[in-house]
Write a structure and sequence with these properties.
3 copies of one chain form a homotrimer. With 323 residues, chain A is of the alpha/beta class. Chain A has a single domain (7-322), classed as TIM Barrel (Alpha-Beta Barrel). Chain A has helices spanning 28-40, 62-67, 77-88, 110-127, 150-167, 183-186, 191-197, 201-215, 235-248, 274-287, 297-300, 308-320, and strands at 7-12, 45-48, 52-53, 56-57, 91-95, 135-140, 170-173, 221-225, 252-256, 292-294. In chain A, the strands form 2 sheets. Chain A has an 8-stranded parallel barrel. Chain A has a two-stranded antiparallel ribbon with strand order 3-4. In chain A, helix 9 (235-248) links the parallel strand 8 and strand 9. The two termini of chain A are 18 Å apart. The model of chain A has no long low-confidence stretch (mean pLDDT 95). The interface between A and B is medium-sized, with 21 and 24 residues.
Chain lengths: 323, 323, 323
């Protein structure tokens, strides 16, 4: 039997999960049960993807309410997640604020948004992370795969360095790939054009070689997303290229084995089939990775998910990995 | 804590809910349980959105089977809803027949469709409503937000007056808004164009000022839909304008706080997140409204819904409003 | 009461159900329960739609792994389905391999793909079907409705004859209709254009008269799909034409009464409403059919489905047919 890399980390999409992936309306009790379910299949790492999006905040950030037009949240969900992480022995990583503005616009004020990220990270460090044994590190949540995302690369460099100064913890990024399933292509072009425009493994290696070299010292761990390339024909190659380009730059290679399915007729994000998930986990192992995270447990492989196929996936996964 | 307006009314989408919002295949027992669930969270008003659509009828209308090409229904669901409304102490409003034809076409025979509406309302009054303590009033189910929907405005005026003569009960309308999330825009134009074309609060106020003035005396209650404008940037303004324009014309202001989410990447109508629902209910209270209805309990906030996130929403809602 | 034809057969979409219709991640135990649920509502026929798609196989086909680039499957699901069919007294039909290539391309090597189909059918006969009392027959899984699908018609003729020689069992096809709801139209043209381009009942009769005459002797049973034509205005006519054209060519008429809904605003394949399903089953009875199959029980009308509306449909169906 081919060895498969187990999933030991997951994003938590709370707050940003309302545009492509609908909110599940979980109570605190469900979140508690879900942390227990994560732990039961070996997950030791949870990454809150963003601590705030547009006007919505996960915690009452004085800075963002005053300077970014955010609303005072009705309750402090960041506190809840720290409490649950401590209770269940899971390390909690925290992602940065996202204004909803387009980082690719030349006119975009990236300095202002980086300031928002730094200030809220500082608040979170002071008020939550510093005193919690559960705190794991910082997540820089810009996820572009675009070659010209200079603002994003600059953010990785500057905000990553800031995080190191702030607390000494590691920084993580999870970039996309400009592949044929990338939403920025599929929303504009028909499938055949997407395949023509899509990045090749060699182009991807060259581009990210340059980017990672540029952000060296600021970024510690890289976990590329994987659903944006064709599973049958490209994914193995891209996994290897990703492993090579990350390790060649002295960073720690994780891989984001997404548990939704993008190769569908509509982008409705159903949970992946267990067979296809296993394929990816075997390929990740073969490519050399030693840690897989996923986007994300709660919607796509949880026994508490609103999608029944996710609940079933949890059963198959747990049984296979004998947890 | 900011006060939130509770939801005390809901549409019932049965029969029309097969194009955008799939049928849930509920048995009579589930409907019974659902009326109980409505009542348990304070809902006292249920509005059957249409008593017939195209060939399908909620009750065996001799007029519509003879004159509108409708099929004899296998069973009388209108009778079921009256029985359940009586049992659970909920007022039942009845919506008019809809042929499926395009009311906006200049060549459309609106007189014929209004005749169908009147005749079936008369049948319903005679055979169901007259003798039921549960009957609440009449719903005029044309829901356009378009400035040039003259046929619809004429229908409000004529059919509304007919309803008053028929039974003396009140009439209700729930118009859409030609906002940036309106399906008639989003199905044709990209998001940026929709935002440009969309009606402004001032244009909306002027247009509906004229329309409501025209239908005065025929329409008693107005409950604008609310999902068709941007939640973050426009909804508060539109809620206030709606309240003003309705009360300025001497009508009763209700508001239709829809419980599905339109601000998604695909129009798949997921249940709204509780946070966003609460935002809307607080804004509705601030705008002055005293009664909120919703489209609709059964799919989007019921413990019997086929969508698990709706079942979860019911729990969060019930807990918040301490019912 | 109008008589309705009961559904006594279903496809099993396992392996191919990952593009339009997501995988449900069922364990063996769920499949066992589902065969029992099928039987409980009178289903005696299960048709595995394809024994392999692209690189994925339902059984370890030495031929396809060696000659078609298929991967060795982690387990033998064909064996499971034979075991369950025997246990529950259901006849199992087996569908052919599909490479994922476009059969309509003039340059497509149909001879090679037919060779794959024949070789895998021979393997299946030898290793599974020959010794199983559950084996029912062969399914030729190309499902086009296009007039110019010459490759497909040739496949029906040659592979059908091969099946007869191989085991003497009957062969089944389930072609689509080039109607206004056909995905090959709706993915390219707006609704009004689809209605213009769509095949008429008379064109359909003429085309399939020629095709069925051509494949006579190779194909025994024909079960046209039915969702691709307008339900209100066309389906009755097409059902009658289908019955006529099949029987006129001396073949056995089955009908594929699909249990998903295509007449929706997005092609998300929700379970059909029970009312609309009953309409179709009554019309099928009136058209003369004596056996209805469906695509498919597991997703759209099973008590184990990941779609709650399917679970509800099962209850309504079972109650109606007093099983």
């Amino acid at each position: 039997m081919v060895e498969a890399l187990p999933i030991t980390g997951t994003f938590i999409g709370e707050i940003q999960a309302d545009y492509e992936i609908p909110d599940q309306n979980w109570s605190d009790e469900v979140w508690d049960a879900d942390f227990a379910a994560m732990k039961a299949v070996g997950i030791d790492t949870a990454i809150i993807i963003r601590c705030g999006v547009r006007k919505k905040l996960l915690y009452p950030s004085e800075w963002l309410m005053k300077n970014a037009g955010c609303e005072r949240p009705r309750r402090d969900k960041l506190q809840l997640f720290f409490k649950l992480a401590e209770k269940h022995g899971i390390k909690l990583w925290i992602g940065g604020y996202y204004s909803g503005n387009d980082w690719m616009l030349a006119t975009y004020d990236v300095q202002k948004e980086m300031e928002h990220m730094k200030r809220s990270f500082a608040e979170i460090w002071e008020n939550y992370a510093k005193n919690s044994p559960a705190f794991g590190g910082w997540y820089l949540s810009q996820e572009t795969g675009a070659r010209t995302a200079y603002n994003v690369f600059e953010c990785y460099k500057q905000v990553g360095a800031f995080c190191h100064d702030l607390s000494g913890h590691q920084t993580l990024i999870s970039p996309g790939i400009s592949g044929c399933n990338n939403g920025s292509l599929t929303s504009k072009y028909p499938p055949a054009a997407c395949r023509r425009i899509a990045v090749t493994p060699d182009e991807h290696r060259e581009m990210w070689g340059n980017v990672l070299d540029y952000v060296k010292g600021s970024v510690d761990i890289v976990a590329f997303q994987n659903s944006q390339v064709n599973r049958d024909t490209q994914m193995r190659d891209f996994l290897k290229v990703n492993y090579d380009v990350i390790t060649a730059n002295g960073m720690t290679p994780w891989t984001n084995i997404e548990t939704f399915e993008l190769e569908t007729s509509l982008r409705t994000f159903p949970p992946i089939s267990f067979e296809c998930l296993l394929d990816k986990l075997e390929w990740a192992h073969q490519a050399g990775f030693q840690k897989a995270i996923t986007y994300e447990f709660a919607h796509f492989m949880s026994p508490n998910s609103c999608a029944m196929a996710a609940r079933n996936l949890y059963g198959l996964y747990k049984d296979y990995f004998k947890k």
